[in-house]
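User: What would this chain look like folded?
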Amino acid sequence: MDINLARLAERRMLAAQAEGKLSNLPGEGEPLPEHPEEAYIDPLEAVGFRIMHEAGFVPQELQLARQLEEAKAAYAATYNAQERAEWMARIADLEMRRNVARETRLHFMHHT
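Assistant: Here's the prediction, encoded as structure tokens.
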């Protein structure tokens, strides 16, 4: 995170705390969830992802995201113009495929 952005966020949180805007919020005083990432996704999706994880299944969307990160790292480490162009094409393909997988999942989840 950019240091200036972090400082701005810290100042705003301190100001909100001083104004009492962070008091009496839902969940105040309760323990944090065991899996805090689940607070940001639909509970039905969370259950589905947990079942898949426990079964050892990795959704295509996540497989593509991992491949995309690897391709970006390879692109950053390459200085040959031809190889960079090849990695850029691979990155574009992976981004498109990941987005299609994500949209397919979201469409399926909202139409079942």
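The two ends are 38 Å apart (CA to CA). If you want, I can go into more detail on any region.
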